[in-house]
Amino acid sequence: MANRVVITGLGVVAPNGIGLAQFSEAIKLGKSGIKHQPMLQDLEFSCQIAGKPPLSEALISQYFNPLELKNFNSSGILYGVIAAVDAWKDAGLLINECTEPYWDCGTIFGTGTSGIDRFREAIYKIDEKLVRRLGSTVVQQTMASGISAWIAAKLGLGNQISTNSSACATGTEAILMAYERICAGKARIMLAGSTSDSGPYIWGGFDAMKVCTFKHNDFPEKGSRPMSASASGFVPGSGAGALVIESLDSALERGARIYAELLGGNVNSGGQRGKGTMTAPGPVAVQRCIVNAIKDAGIETQDVDVINAHLTATAMDALEIENWSIALQRSGTDFPYINSLKGMTGHCIAAAGSIETVAAVLEIKEGFIFPNLNCEDLNPHITEIVDPIKIPRELLHKNINILAKASFGFGDVNACIILKKYSHE
Hints:
19% strand, 35% helix, eleven-stranded mixed β-sheet, 16 helices, 425 residues, alpha/beta, single chain, two-stranded antiparallel ribbon
C-alpha cells in the first residue's frame, strides 16, 4: 500500500517576500514585488520591469560562508539554498552535522538555468585566453544539477539528489516527483522545489520573443495582469520555493506540524501535436493532465474548491480557463475559486510552480484565498466561462478542503497536483 504524503515545511524567496512571514503577509495584502529595473532600461529592453527578490548581504551571509561566496555569482543557487534551508528548519529538521548522510532524505530541486551570470563571466575569460583564471567553482555554479548538489551539501542528504527541468512546469513537477518517491517507500523525507536566476541574460530571450509587456514601465506594479482584458504580456520574475514532503507516518512519528496532504497529480506532454507547440501547451494535453491528476488523487471534479492557476497575463489566459472548465465540467458560479500569484510576483519561470505552491499550501493551512491583482477589467472571454464572483479581487477568508495547482511550460509540458487540508484523522 502506498504511503500517504504530507507537507511539513515551507521556504520561499519571492519578489514580494523573503521568508514565510513576509510572504504570507504580502499575498494576503496583495502586495506586488514587481519593480522598475534600471539595468533593463540601460540595455534597451522593451520590458523594463521585473520581479526580483531583494536579498541583502547580511541575509546571504547567514546561509553562505565567506569562502563559498568567493567568486560566487549565481542568483538561482542563492535563492534555492535559502528557501531550502528555511523549509528544512521550518519542518523542525536538523542540519546534518555528522559524517554519515541522512540516507532516507533527498531532494529534487529544479531549475531552468544555473549561474547564468557566472557562466557569462567564464565565457569572456576563456575568449580572452584567461582560462587559468576562471577559479575553481565555475562548474559547481553553472552545472544544471548545481542547485540540488548545494542543497544536499548544506543539509547532508543521502537519498536521491536530482535536478529536474521542464520550463515553467519545473517546480510543480519536482513536487510530484518527490511525492512519488515517498509513496513508493524509496525515501522518508524529500525536499522539493525549484529556483530561477535573475537578470537580463535569463530574461532577454523572452523580451526578444515579445511575450513580455512593454506598456507598464512607468507603473511596474500594474504590469502583471492575469485574467485582465488589458493584459499585454507577462512580467519576468525570479526566486525559489521549497517544500519538505514526507510520509504521514514519518510526520506523525516526529510530531511534525502538517500543512497539507498531497493526494497525487499528473505530468504529461502534448508532444507538440495538434494545437500544442514549442511555446504553447495544447488544450487536449492540458485537459488530460488535469483530469488524470484528479483521478490519481481519488477525488471528484466537484471536490475542487480552489484552483491556483498558471495564468501568465498573456492572450493564453482565456484558453487556460476554458481548459479548466472543460476538464472539471464546471462553469459559471459552479466554477471553483481561481487565483494567480503572478499579478504580485511576475512569472518566475522555473521557480513559478514551487513559489505558487507555497502560497497554495498557506491558503489551505490558514483558510484564505489571496486576491488577484490588476484584473479590475476582467477579460470578457473569461467571464463568459467563470462568474466574476469566483475570481476574488480582495482577500477571502474561507475554509479550503481541496486545491488544484497546475503549471504549463514551453515544450508543451504540463504538471498538476492536488492538495488537501489535513484533518488530523
